Amino acid sequence: MPKAFITGLGGTRLTPAERAFIAAHDPLGFILFARNVSEPEPLRLLTAELRDAVGRADAPVLVDQEGGRVARLGPPCWRASPPAALFGRLARIDGDAAIRAAYLDGRLIGAELRAAGITVDGAPVLDVPIPGADPVIGDRAFDDDPGRVAALGAAFCDGLAAAGIVPVLKHIPGHGRARVDSHRALPRVGADRATLHAHDFAPFKAVAGRAGPEPWAMTAHVVYAALDADRPATLSPVVIGEAVRATIGFAGVLISDDLSMGALSGPVGTRAAAALDAGCDLVLHCNGNLAEMGEVAAACPAVAGETAARLSRSIGAVGTPSSFDAAAAGAELERLLAPVLQGAR
User: In terms of pTM, does the model score above 0.85?
Assistant: First the structure.
C-alpha cells in the first residue's frame, strides 16, 4: 500500500533522484506548482510519468487552481479564472446568477485539469475573512458572509465534480480570522466557541453535509485558543476530533496544509507524525526538497483502515465527466460576471 503523504517535486520532469525516491517510498500522490507547469502537452506527460512511477493509474495528482492569484495553470496556455471574491460581489446583486457562475467556473477549471491528468483541485476556499485579518486569504474567499460562502463554494464543488475532479475544502475549520500569514508564522485566533461555530465553521459544515461526491479538506495551520491553546489545528487531536469531525461533521479525506510552512516548527518528519497522530489522513509536503521528502516519508505509515476507506469513497466517486461545451460555458460565465467585471476594470 502507498504511504500516507502527498509530495511535491522540483521541475517539469522527474529527475533520476526523484524517481528513485518514489520507487523507495511510494507516496500516495503528488502536488504540482507553477515550477512544474510549462505547456499542456508536457504537463500531461508529467502527470502520466508520475502515475507510471508509482504504478497506480488512480494516484491522485493535485494542484491549487482556485482562480485569481492562486492558479498554477495560467495564460497563455490556460484560462485566467477570476478570484472567488468576484462571485461574492455578484451574489450581492443576483444570488442565482452568482451560484450559476461559480458552478461554471468550477466546471471550466475542472475540464482544464482533467485534460492535463490532474484529478484533485485545492479549492474552494471556504474561509470567512474578518476586518483586520491578514490578506493571505483576502479575495481568495468568496465573501464575508458564511451563508454566501457556503452556497458559492458548494456550486464550485459541483462544477469540479461534474468534470471528474475532487475538490479540497480549505482551510478547515477556518483561516479567515488569522492576523498573520501561516506561510510565515503561526496565527492564533482568540474567538470563543460560539463565534467559531456560528461564523467560521458554518460554510464547512454546510458543504460537508451535502449529498453527492465526497470532497477532501485541508487543515489550517492556526491555533484556536478556545479549543486547543497550544497546538494548531493540523497538529491538534482536539480540533480535528471535536471541531472538524464532530461539530462540522466532515467525514472525508483530511489532508494537512504544507508541512514546510513557517507556522509549524521542528523537523518535518516530526511534524508529519504529529499531524497523522492528530487525525489527518494524509500529510502534504510541497517544496520538492529531497532531504525533507525523505524525512516525511520515513514518518508516514502505509495507507490503511479508515483512511483507505475514505480514499476509496472519494476516488471511486470520480466519474466520467458529463457532456460539456467549454466555449458556450465560457461565454455564459462572461455574461453573468459582466456587471462586476465592468466595475473591476
Answer: yes
**Per-residue pLDDT tens for 166-221?**
999 999 999 999 999 999 999 999 999 999 999 999 999 999 988 667 899 999 99
CATH of the domain at 127: 3.20.20.300
Listed in sequence order, the DSSP H helices in the chain are 16-25, 40-54, 84-91, 95-116, 146-162, 193-195, 202-208, 237-238, 268-278, 290-299, 305-316, 326-344
- Side-chain-side CA neighbours of 100 within 13 Å: the count stands at 13
257 flagged as catalytic: yes
Number of structural domains (the chain) is: 1
* DSSP for residue 198: I
Asked about 183 being catalytic, the answer comes back as yes
Q: Which of 64, 127, 257, 258 is catalytic?
A: 257
Q: In terms of residue numbers, what domain contains 65?
A: 3-344
